[in-house]
Amino acid sequence: MFILKYDIPVLLASSYQRNHSYQKELVKKLQPFLPNRIYCHLDRDSANDLIDQTNRIQVTPYKNMKISSIDTIHDFEIDDVQKFGKKDKEEIISFLKEVHPDYFLDEEYINQGCYFGIKRDNSLISIAGLVAKSERYSVVSIGNVATHPLYRKKNLASKTISALIQNLYPTYRTITLNVKEANVPAINCYKKLEFIETGTFEEVILE
């Protein structure tokens, strides 16, 4: 999938497998047409092929996870979790810029009310939303999960994600997310919510 609506062109081609010959062939054929500046999700061996072509590159290993059961999301009190919409857009963007500067935002999901968060003293301190969805295939991808450093280790991310999933299910039955392999606290949080690993890929940024 090639997407042009963001500030940087996006190529999503992960199969979440290693040594996937079809993807390697695809990337090889696409290379002559790719712009110098691009954001990609690629299988690791394919990412290595692309890396050989440039020294202006940033590569980050990621895990892809999906929820295996929604039972656990009811274990968290979500009374203080709010649903956010279009009127909250500037506040959400400002919060993400401060707390999660490598965020990737499709503002349409804010407009659709696909973000949930927690405030303290009228300030946003934790949030979770959507970065992709398909009504046809009943699939969504959770992203932009962020908590202010002063409020971490208090289960706030678990609460915001639980509220979001309760809003999504059962309309969307396949609920996924991507997380950096090095972000062990986040991975443990997602496992606690019964997300399981489904594969790995590389986030590749050419600039």
Automatic annotation (TrEMBL):
Q: Which domain of life is it from?
A: Bacteria
Among InterPro entries, the record links this protein to: Acyl_CoA_acyltransferase, GNAT_dom
Where in this chain does the record put each N-acetyltransferase domain?
Answer: 76-207
Protein name (database record): Ribosomal protein S18 acetylase RimI-like enzyme
Q: What is the lineage of its organism?
A: Bacteria, Bacillati, Bacillota, Bacilli, Bacillales
